[in-house]
Design goal:
globular, binds glutamine, Amidase signature (AS) enzymes, eleven-stranded mixed beta sheet
Length: about 475
Protein backbone atom coordinates (compact mmCIF):
# COMPACT_ATOMS: atom_id res chain seq x y z
CA UNK A 1 0.00 0.00 0.00
CA UNK A 2 1.27 3.45 -0.90
CA UNK A 3 1.48 6.12 1.74
CA UNK A 4 -1.12 8.25 -0.02
CA UNK A 5 -3.65 5.40 0.20
CA UNK A 6 -3.93 5.79 3.97
CA UNK A 7 -6.61 7.93 5.57
CA UNK A 8 -5.92 10.80 7.96
CA UNK A 9 -6.98 8.59 10.84
CA UNK A 10 -4.62 5.79 9.78
CA UNK A 11 -1.67 8.09 9.18
CA UNK A 12 -2.01 9.74 12.57
CA UNK A 13 -2.30 6.33 14.21
CA UNK A 14 0.89 5.11 12.50
CA UNK A 15 2.64 8.32 13.47
CA UNK A 16 1.77 7.99 17.12
CA UNK A 17 2.85 4.33 17.08
CA UNK A 18 6.15 5.55 15.58
CA UNK A 19 5.73 3.34 12.55
CA UNK A 20 6.07 6.31 10.28
CA UNK A 21 7.61 9.76 10.68
CA UNK A 22 6.02 13.08 9.80
CA UNK A 23 9.07 13.89 7.67
CA UNK A 24 8.46 10.77 5.60
CA UNK A 25 4.84 11.76 5.01
CA UNK A 26 5.68 15.32 3.99
CA UNK A 27 8.63 14.22 1.85
CA UNK A 28 6.43 11.74 0.05
CA UNK A 29 3.84 14.38 -0.78
CA UNK A 30 6.50 16.91 -1.78
CA UNK A 31 8.04 14.36 -4.14
CA UNK A 32 4.67 13.73 -5.81
CA UNK A 33 4.26 17.51 -6.20
CA UNK A 34 7.73 17.65 -7.70
CA UNK A 35 6.85 14.86 -10.10
CA UNK A 36 3.37 15.96 -11.17
CA UNK A 37 2.78 19.65 -10.56
CA UNK A 38 4.62 20.99 -13.58
CA UNK A 39 2.20 19.06 -15.76
CA UNK A 40 -1.06 19.35 -13.80
CA UNK A 41 -0.60 22.86 -12.37
CA UNK A 42 -2.45 22.23 -9.13
CA UNK A 43 -0.33 24.46 -6.89
CA UNK A 44 0.30 28.18 -7.09
CA UNK A 45 2.78 28.02 -4.23
CA UNK A 46 4.33 25.31 -2.09
CA UNK A 47 5.05 25.88 1.59
CA UNK A 48 8.79 25.95 2.01
CA UNK A 49 8.50 25.46 5.74
CA UNK A 50 6.47 22.24 5.52
CA UNK A 51 9.43 19.94 6.00
CA UNK A 52 10.75 21.97 8.91
CA UNK A 53 7.34 21.76 10.57
CA UNK A 54 7.32 17.99 10.05
CA UNK A 55 10.74 17.73 11.68
CA UNK A 56 9.41 19.52 14.71
CA UNK A 57 6.53 17.05 14.95
CA UNK A 58 8.98 14.14 14.85
CA UNK A 59 11.13 15.75 17.53
CA UNK A 60 8.13 16.19 19.79
CA UNK A 61 7.17 12.55 19.29
CA UNK A 62 10.65 11.31 20.03
CA UNK A 63 10.76 13.40 23.21
CA UNK A 64 7.52 11.72 24.24
CA UNK A 65 5.55 14.99 24.23
CA UNK A 66 1.83 15.14 23.62
CA UNK A 67 1.07 16.14 20.02
CA UNK A 68 -2.16 17.35 18.47
CA UNK A 69 -4.35 14.61 16.95
CA UNK A 70 -3.49 15.18 13.29
CA UNK A 71 0.09 16.40 13.62
CA UNK A 72 2.14 16.12 10.45
CA UNK A 73 -0.69 15.49 7.96
CA UNK A 74 -0.28 17.64 4.80
CA UNK A 75 -3.29 19.62 3.61
CA UNK A 76 -3.55 21.86 0.54
CA UNK A 77 -5.51 25.12 0.72
CA UNK A 78 -7.22 27.01 -2.09
CA UNK A 79 -5.48 30.28 -2.80
CA UNK A 80 -8.41 32.42 -1.70
CA UNK A 81 -8.09 31.29 1.94
CA UNK A 82 -5.54 33.06 4.11
CA UNK A 83 -2.59 31.29 5.65
CA UNK A 84 -0.55 33.74 7.71
CA UNK A 85 2.83 34.47 6.15
CA UNK A 86 1.98 32.91 2.78
CA UNK A 87 0.87 34.62 -0.41
CA UNK A 88 -2.90 34.77 -1.11
CA UNK A 89 -3.33 35.55 -4.81
CA UNK A 90 -6.87 34.35 -5.67
CA UNK A 91 -5.09 33.47 -8.94
CA UNK A 92 -5.35 37.16 -9.84
CA UNK A 93 -2.69 39.55 -11.08
CA UNK A 94 -4.06 42.17 -8.72
CA UNK A 95 -3.10 40.24 -5.57
CA UNK A 96 0.24 38.80 -6.63
CA UNK A 97 2.75 39.43 -3.87
CA UNK A 98 0.10 39.94 -1.19
CA UNK A 99 1.16 38.10 1.98
CA UNK A 100 -1.68 37.20 4.33
CA UNK A 101 -1.34 38.79 7.74
CA UNK A 102 -3.62 36.35 9.56
CA UNK A 103 -4.97 32.80 9.37
CA UNK A 104 -8.50 32.15 8.14
CA UNK A 105 -10.52 30.58 10.96
CA UNK A 106 -10.67 27.24 9.12
CA UNK A 107 -6.89 27.36 8.71
CA UNK A 108 -6.33 28.28 12.34
CA UNK A 109 -8.47 25.36 13.46
CA UNK A 110 -6.58 22.92 11.23
CA UNK A 111 -3.28 24.29 12.47
CA UNK A 112 -4.36 23.79 16.08
CA UNK A 113 -5.02 20.13 15.32
CA UNK A 114 -1.53 19.74 13.91
CA UNK A 115 -2.16 19.69 10.15
CA UNK A 116 0.67 20.99 7.96
CA UNK A 117 -0.16 23.27 5.02
CA UNK A 118 1.68 21.92 2.03
CA UNK A 119 0.73 24.66 -0.41
CA UNK A 120 -1.85 26.97 -1.98
CA UNK A 121 -3.87 25.66 -4.89
CA UNK A 122 -4.84 27.02 -8.27
CA UNK A 123 -8.33 28.34 -8.98
CA UNK A 124 -10.37 30.53 -11.27
CA UNK A 125 -9.60 34.16 -10.55
CA UNK A 126 -11.53 35.15 -7.40
CA UNK A 127 -13.36 31.79 -7.66
CA UNK A 128 -15.30 32.96 -10.72
CA UNK A 129 -15.47 30.06 -13.10
CA UNK A 130 -16.19 26.37 -13.55
CA UNK A 131 -12.98 25.05 -15.08
CA UNK A 132 -9.94 26.75 -13.46
CA UNK A 133 -9.14 28.16 -16.90
CA UNK A 134 -9.74 31.72 -15.66
CA UNK A 135 -6.54 31.60 -13.60
CA UNK A 136 -3.72 34.02 -14.25
CA UNK A 137 -1.42 31.05 -13.57
CA UNK A 138 -2.88 28.99 -16.42
CA UNK A 139 -5.37 26.11 -16.14
CA UNK A 140 -5.09 23.13 -13.84
CA UNK A 141 -5.27 19.88 -15.79
CA UNK A 142 -7.41 16.86 -15.16
CA UNK A 143 -5.29 13.98 -13.83
CA UNK A 144 -7.43 11.50 -15.77
CA UNK A 145 -6.80 13.31 -19.06
CA UNK A 146 -4.52 16.37 -19.02
CA UNK A 147 -6.16 17.75 -22.17
CA UNK A 148 -9.35 18.20 -20.17
CA UNK A 149 -10.33 20.65 -17.46
CA UNK A 150 -10.24 19.84 -13.77
CA UNK A 151 -13.50 21.68 -13.08
CA UNK A 152 -13.62 24.85 -11.07
CA UNK A 153 -13.19 27.00 -9.40
CA UNK A 154 -11.37 24.84 -6.79
CA UNK A 155 -9.68 22.87 -9.59
CA UNK A 156 -6.22 22.98 -8.05
CA UNK A 157 -7.47 21.51 -4.77
CA UNK A 158 -9.29 18.66 -6.52
CA UNK A 159 -6.29 17.88 -8.75
CA UNK A 160 -3.93 17.93 -5.76
CA UNK A 161 -6.12 15.44 -3.92
CA UNK A 162 -6.90 13.20 -6.91
CA UNK A 163 -3.28 12.93 -7.99
CA UNK A 164 -1.88 12.35 -4.50
CA UNK A 165 -0.14 15.72 -4.09
CA UNK A 166 -1.87 16.31 -0.73
CA UNK A 167 -3.73 14.17 1.76
CA UNK A 168 -6.80 16.40 1.41
CA UNK A 169 -7.62 20.01 0.63
CA UNK A 170 -9.84 22.97 1.41
CA UNK A 171 -11.87 24.56 -1.34
CA UNK A 172 -14.59 27.18 -1.45
CA UNK A 173 -18.00 26.74 -3.03
CA UNK A 174 -20.24 29.62 -4.11
CA UNK A 175 -22.17 27.82 -6.84
CA UNK A 176 -20.46 24.46 -7.20
CA UNK A 177 -16.75 25.18 -6.96
CA UNK A 178 -16.02 22.30 -4.60
CA UNK A 179 -18.44 19.75 -6.07
CA UNK A 180 -17.80 20.24 -9.77
CA UNK A 181 -14.00 19.80 -9.62
CA UNK A 182 -14.45 16.92 -7.17
CA UNK A 183 -16.75 15.27 -9.71
CA UNK A 184 -14.41 15.92 -12.66
CA UNK A 185 -11.40 14.57 -10.75
CA UNK A 186 -13.15 11.61 -9.09
CA UNK A 187 -12.93 12.59 -5.41
CA UNK A 188 -15.27 13.61 -2.57
CA UNK A 189 -16.09 17.26 -2.09
CA UNK A 190 -18.51 18.78 0.42
CA UNK A 191 -20.16 22.15 0.48
CA UNK A 192 -21.36 22.43 4.08
CA UNK A 193 -24.61 24.05 5.24
CA UNK A 194 -24.30 27.84 4.98
CA UNK A 195 -23.04 29.03 8.37
CA UNK A 196 -21.49 25.70 9.35
CA UNK A 197 -17.95 26.87 8.57
CA UNK A 198 -16.58 30.35 9.22
CA UNK A 199 -15.82 32.47 6.15
CA UNK A 200 -13.37 34.65 8.10
CA UNK A 201 -10.18 34.79 6.07
CA UNK A 202 -11.83 33.55 2.87
CA UNK A 203 -11.62 36.24 0.20
CA UNK A 204 -15.28 37.07 -0.38
CA UNK A 205 -16.81 36.41 -3.79
CA UNK A 206 -20.57 36.32 -3.07
CA UNK A 207 -20.95 36.38 0.70
CA UNK A 208 -24.49 35.01 0.94
CA UNK A 209 -23.45 31.91 -1.05
CA UNK A 210 -19.77 31.25 -0.16
CA UNK A 211 -18.77 28.32 2.05
CA UNK A 212 -15.40 26.69 2.73
CA UNK A 213 -15.40 22.89 2.60
CA UNK A 214 -13.19 19.80 2.36
CA UNK A 215 -12.08 17.77 -0.67
CA UNK A 216 -10.67 14.29 0.00
CA UNK A 217 -10.13 10.79 -1.39
CA UNK A 218 -12.35 9.12 1.19
CA UNK A 219 -15.38 9.87 3.35
CA UNK A 220 -13.51 9.48 6.64
CA UNK A 221 -11.16 12.32 5.72
CA UNK A 222 -14.09 14.55 4.77
CA UNK A 223 -15.69 13.79 8.14
CA UNK A 224 -12.53 14.57 10.10
CA UNK A 225 -11.87 17.82 8.27
CA UNK A 226 -15.47 18.96 8.60
CA UNK A 227 -15.42 18.30 12.35
CA UNK A 228 -12.26 20.36 12.69
CA UNK A 229 -13.27 23.40 10.62
CA UNK A 230 -16.94 23.73 11.66
CA UNK A 231 -18.46 25.85 14.37
CA UNK A 232 -19.41 29.28 15.57
CA UNK A 233 -16.86 32.02 15.10
CA UNK A 234 -17.03 35.45 16.64
CA UNK A 235 -15.33 36.80 13.50
CA UNK A 236 -18.16 35.65 11.21
CA UNK A 237 -21.61 36.64 12.40
CA UNK A 238 -23.25 34.31 9.87
CA UNK A 239 -21.81 31.19 11.53
CA UNK A 240 -24.27 28.99 13.33
CA UNK A 241 -24.18 28.44 17.07
CA UNK A 242 -25.43 24.85 16.59
CA UNK A 243 -23.15 22.43 18.41
CA UNK A 244 -20.81 20.54 16.06
CA UNK A 245 -20.89 16.78 16.34
CA UNK A 246 -17.90 14.55 15.74
CA UNK A 247 -18.72 13.47 12.18
CA UNK A 248 -15.97 10.89 12.09
CA UNK A 249 -17.23 9.17 15.22
CA UNK A 250 -20.77 9.31 13.84
CA UNK A 251 -19.97 7.41 10.65
CA UNK A 252 -17.36 5.14 12.16
CA UNK A 253 -19.06 3.95 15.29
CA UNK A 254 -22.66 4.14 14.38
CA UNK A 255 -22.70 1.28 11.89
CA UNK A 256 -26.26 -0.02 12.00
CA UNK A 257 -27.89 -0.04 8.61
CA UNK A 258 -30.21 2.83 8.00
CA UNK A 259 -32.85 3.15 5.40
CA UNK A 260 -33.24 6.34 3.43
CA UNK A 261 -36.00 8.12 1.58
CA UNK A 262 -34.48 9.61 -1.54
CA UNK A 263 -36.00 12.16 -3.91
CA UNK A 264 -35.02 12.43 -7.57
CA UNK A 265 -36.20 15.80 -8.90
CA UNK A 266 -37.28 15.47 -12.52
CA UNK A 267 -35.79 18.89 -13.32
CA UNK A 268 -32.32 17.48 -12.62
CA UNK A 269 -32.69 14.30 -14.63
CA UNK A 270 -34.11 15.68 -17.87
CA UNK A 271 -32.82 16.45 -21.32
CA UNK A 272 -29.73 18.45 -20.40
CA UNK A 273 -28.01 15.43 -18.86
CA UNK A 274 -25.52 13.77 -21.21
CA UNK A 275 -25.93 10.10 -22.09
CA UNK A 276 -22.51 9.11 -20.73
CA UNK A 277 -23.14 10.66 -17.33
CA UNK A 278 -26.72 9.38 -17.18
CA UNK A 279 -25.63 5.81 -17.80
CA UNK A 280 -23.18 5.75 -14.89
CA UNK A 281 -25.65 7.46 -12.55
CA UNK A 282 -28.52 5.13 -13.44
CA UNK A 283 -26.37 2.13 -12.63
CA UNK A 284 -25.76 3.67 -9.25
CA UNK A 285 -29.48 4.27 -8.72
CA UNK A 286 -29.98 0.57 -9.47
CA UNK A 287 -27.62 -0.26 -6.61
CA UNK A 288 -29.64 1.97 -4.24
CA UNK A 289 -32.87 0.27 -5.28
CA UNK A 290 -31.30 -3.12 -4.64
CA UNK A 291 -30.64 -1.92 -1.12
CA UNK A 292 -34.34 -1.20 -0.81
CA UNK A 293 -34.04 2.50 -0.24
CA UNK A 294 -37.19 4.37 -1.09
CA UNK A 295 -36.46 6.28 -4.30
CA UNK A 296 -39.12 8.49 -5.83
CA UNK A 297 -39.41 11.08 -8.56
CA UNK A 298 -40.39 14.51 -7.33
CA UNK A 299 -40.53 18.03 -8.72
CA UNK A 300 -38.62 21.13 -7.66
CA UNK A 301 -40.63 23.39 -9.94
CA UNK A 302 -38.58 26.58 -9.65
CA UNK A 303 -35.29 24.96 -10.65
CA UNK A 304 -35.39 26.73 -14.01
CA UNK A 305 -34.79 30.05 -12.24
CA UNK A 306 -31.71 28.79 -10.41
CA UNK A 307 -29.00 29.68 -12.96
CA UNK A 308 -30.33 33.17 -13.83
CA UNK A 309 -30.97 34.13 -10.23
CA UNK A 310 -27.66 32.67 -9.08
CA UNK A 311 -25.67 34.66 -11.61
CA UNK A 312 -27.52 37.89 -10.85
CA UNK A 313 -27.05 37.54 -7.10
CA UNK A 314 -23.45 36.29 -7.34
CA UNK A 315 -22.42 39.10 -9.68
CA UNK A 316 -24.19 41.75 -7.60
CA UNK A 317 -22.42 40.63 -4.45
CA UNK A 318 -19.11 40.25 -6.29
CA UNK A 319 -19.23 43.77 -7.69
CA UNK A 320 -19.52 45.08 -4.17
CA UNK A 321 -16.98 42.70 -2.58
CA UNK A 322 -14.33 43.39 -5.20
CA UNK A 323 -14.57 47.15 -4.64
CA UNK A 324 -11.80 46.77 -2.05
CA UNK A 325 -9.21 45.95 -4.73
CA UNK A 326 -8.37 49.50 -5.64
CA UNK A 327 -4.58 49.73 -5.61
CA UNK A 328 -4.67 51.24 -2.13
CA UNK A 329 -5.55 48.59 0.37
CA UNK A 330 -4.28 45.34 -1.11
CA UNK A 331 -1.87 44.03 -3.67
CA UNK A 332 -0.58 45.84 -6.70
CA UNK A 333 -1.03 49.29 -8.18
CA UNK A 334 -0.65 51.04 -11.54
CA UNK A 335 -0.03 54.77 -11.03
CA UNK A 336 -2.10 57.46 -12.74
CA UNK A 337 -2.25 61.24 -12.90
CA UNK A 338 -5.18 61.37 -10.48
CA UNK A 339 -6.43 59.13 -7.71
CA UNK A 340 -9.34 58.01 -9.83
CA UNK A 341 -7.08 57.25 -12.76
CA UNK A 342 -4.82 55.17 -10.50
CA UNK A 343 -7.82 53.05 -9.45
CA UNK A 344 -8.99 52.68 -13.06
CA UNK A 345 -5.52 51.76 -14.27
CA UNK A 346 -5.00 49.25 -11.49
CA UNK A 347 -8.33 47.47 -11.96
CA UNK A 348 -8.16 47.76 -15.73
CA UNK A 349 -4.71 46.23 -15.88
CA UNK A 350 -4.90 43.55 -13.22
CA UNK A 351 -8.44 42.12 -13.28
CA UNK A 352 -9.01 39.35 -15.83
CA UNK A 353 -11.79 39.37 -18.45
CA UNK A 354 -14.26 37.26 -16.50
CA UNK A 355 -13.86 39.28 -13.31
CA UNK A 356 -14.43 42.52 -15.24
CA UNK A 357 -17.52 41.08 -16.92
CA UNK A 358 -18.98 40.20 -13.54
CA UNK A 359 -18.15 43.49 -11.84
CA UNK A 360 -19.80 45.34 -14.72
CA UNK A 361 -22.91 43.14 -14.81
CA UNK A 362 -23.15 43.15 -11.04
CA UNK A 363 -23.01 46.93 -10.90
CA UNK A 364 -25.64 47.09 -13.62
CA UNK A 365 -28.18 44.84 -11.87
CA UNK A 366 -27.83 46.88 -8.69
CA UNK A 367 -28.19 50.27 -10.34
CA UNK A 368 -31.22 52.53 -9.87
CA UNK A 369 -33.98 51.68 -12.31
CA UNK A 370 -32.79 48.09 -12.83
CA UNK A 371 -32.56 46.87 -9.25
CA UNK A 372 -36.24 45.91 -9.10
CA UNK A 373 -36.18 44.19 -12.47
CA UNK A 374 -33.14 42.03 -11.84
CA UNK A 375 -31.77 41.86 -8.33
CA UNK A 376 -35.07 41.94 -6.51
CA UNK A 377 -36.62 39.39 -8.88
CA UNK A 378 -33.64 37.10 -8.40
CA UNK A 379 -34.08 37.32 -4.62
CA UNK A 380 -37.74 36.40 -4.99
CA UNK A 381 -36.86 33.42 -7.14
CA UNK A 382 -34.32 32.43 -4.50
CA UNK A 383 -37.11 32.26 -1.92
CA UNK A 384 -39.18 30.05 -4.24
CA UNK A 385 -36.20 27.71 -4.67
CA UNK A 386 -35.72 27.54 -0.90
CA UNK A 387 -39.39 26.65 -0.45
CA UNK A 388 -39.19 23.92 -3.10
CA UNK A 389 -36.49 22.19 -1.06
CA UNK A 390 -38.33 22.73 2.23
CA UNK A 391 -41.33 20.88 0.84
CA UNK A 392 -39.22 17.97 -0.33
CA UNK A 393 -37.35 17.60 2.95
CA UNK A 394 -40.62 17.18 4.81
CA UNK A 395 -40.89 13.75 3.23
CA UNK A 396 -37.40 12.77 2.15
CA UNK A 397 -33.96 12.50 3.73
CA UNK A 398 -31.96 13.36 0.64
CA UNK A 399 -32.19 14.72 -2.85
CA UNK A 400 -30.00 13.02 -5.43
CA UNK A 401 -28.93 14.82 -8.58
CA UNK A 402 -26.06 14.72 -11.03
CA UNK A 403 -23.15 16.97 -10.06
CA UNK A 404 -22.31 17.88 -13.66
CA UNK A 405 -24.38 17.58 -16.84
CA UNK A 406 -21.34 16.40 -18.83
CA UNK A 407 -18.02 14.63 -18.51
CA UNK A 408 -14.98 16.90 -17.98
CA UNK A 409 -14.74 19.00 -21.14
CA UNK A 410 -11.67 19.89 -23.19
CA UNK A 411 -9.45 22.79 -22.21
CA UNK A 412 -10.49 25.74 -24.37
CA UNK A 413 -13.88 24.29 -25.26
CA UNK A 414 -16.04 26.75 -23.29
CA UNK A 415 -13.68 29.54 -22.44
CA UNK A 416 -14.98 31.92 -25.13
CA UNK A 417 -18.63 31.31 -24.38
CA UNK A 418 -19.55 32.54 -20.89
CA UNK A 419 -23.11 31.24 -21.09
CA UNK A 420 -21.96 27.72 -21.89
CA UNK A 421 -19.53 27.89 -19.02
CA UNK A 422 -22.27 29.11 -16.64
CA UNK A 423 -24.45 26.16 -17.61
CA UNK A 424 -21.86 23.74 -16.18
CA UNK A 425 -23.26 24.81 -12.81
CA UNK A 426 -26.86 24.00 -13.64
CA UNK A 427 -27.09 21.24 -11.00
CA UNK A 428 -24.92 22.80 -8.30
CA UNK A 429 -26.12 26.39 -7.75
CA UNK A 430 -29.46 25.61 -6.08
CA UNK A 431 -28.00 24.26 -2.82
CA UNK A 432 -25.98 27.49 -2.50
CA UNK A 433 -29.07 29.62 -3.12
CA UNK A 434 -30.89 27.60 -0.45
CA UNK A 435 -27.89 27.30 1.91
CA UNK A 436 -28.14 23.50 1.92
CA UNK A 437 -25.25 21.05 2.31
CA UNK A 438 -24.27 19.08 -0.80
CA UNK A 439 -21.65 16.42 -1.39
CA UNK A 440 -20.09 15.01 -4.54
CA UNK A 441 -19.74 11.23 -4.35
CA UNK A 442 -17.62 9.63 -7.10
CA UNK A 443 -19.61 6.68 -8.48
CA UNK A 444 -17.84 5.51 -11.60
CA UNK A 445 -16.20 6.28 -14.92
CA UNK A 446 -17.22 6.78 -18.51
CA UNK A 447 -14.55 6.72 -21.23
CA UNK A 448 -11.92 6.77 -18.50
CA UNK A 449 -13.33 9.99 -17.01
CA UNK A 450 -14.87 10.23 -13.53
CA UNK A 451 -18.58 10.72 -12.89
CA UNK A 452 -20.01 11.99 -9.61
CA UNK A 453 -23.44 12.10 -8.05
CA UNK A 454 -24.61 14.97 -5.87
CA UNK A 455 -26.16 14.24 -2.51
CA UNK A 456 -28.15 17.21 -1.19
CA UNK A 457 -29.27 17.09 2.44
CA UNK A 458 -31.42 19.17 4.74
CA UNK A 459 -29.84 21.95 6.81
CA UNK A 460 -27.15 20.66 9.19
CA UNK A 461 -27.67 17.03 8.19
CA UNK A 462 -24.02 16.46 7.27
CA UNK A 463 -23.72 13.58 9.73
CA UNK A 464 -26.39 11.52 7.98
CA UNK A 465 -25.10 12.52 4.55
CA UNK A 466 -21.61 11.34 5.41
CA UNK A 467 -22.95 8.11 6.82
CA UNK A 468 -24.81 7.48 3.57
CA UNK A 469 -21.67 8.30 1.57
CA UNK A 470 -19.62 5.99 3.78
CA UNK A 471 -22.06 3.17 3.08
CA UNK A 472 -21.77 3.83 -0.66
CA UNK A 473 -17.98 3.98 -0.48
CA UNK A 474 -17.80 0.62 1.27
CA UNK A 475 -20.54 -1.23 -0.61
CA UNK A 476 -20.59 0.13 -4.14
CA UNK A 477 -17.81 -0.63 -6.56
CA UNK A 478 -19.09 1.41 -9.50
N1 LIG B 1 -18.98 28.49 -11.51
C1 LIG B 1 -19.70 29.29 -10.56
C2 LIG B 1 -19.34 30.74 -10.78
O1 LIG B 1 -18.57 31.02 -11.61
C3 LIG B 1 -19.40 28.86 -9.16
C4 LIG B 1 -18.08 29.31 -8.69
C5 LIG B 1 -17.89 29.01 -7.24
O2 LIG B 1 -18.58 28.18 -6.66
N2 LIG B 1 -16.96 29.73 -6.64
O3 LIG B 1 -19.84 31.60 -10.12
Amino acid sequence: MKLEDFSIFELSYLLKKRQIRAVEIVERYLSIIEEKNSKLNAFISVNERALEEAKRVDESISRGEAIPPYAGIPIAVKDNINIKGMETTCASEILKGYIATYDATAVRKLREKGFIFIGKTNMDEFAMGSSTEFSSFGPSRNPHDPERVAGGSSGGSAVAVASGMAQAALGSDTGGSIRLPASFCGVYGLKPTYGRVSRYGLVAYASSLDQIGPIARNVEDIAILLSVISGWDENDSTTSTMPVSDFFEYIFENRDRETYRIALPEEYWGEGLSIEVRKVLEEFLGFLKMNLFKIEKVSLPHTKYAIPSYYIIAMAEASSNLGRFDGVRYGRRVEGRTFREMIENTRGEFFGEEVKRRVLLGTFVLSAGYYEDYYLKAQKARTLIINDFKNIFREYDFVLAPTSPTLPFRIGEKIDDPLKMYLSDIYTVSPNLAGLPALNIPVGFSNGLPVGIQLIGNYFSENRMLKFAYFVEKEYSG
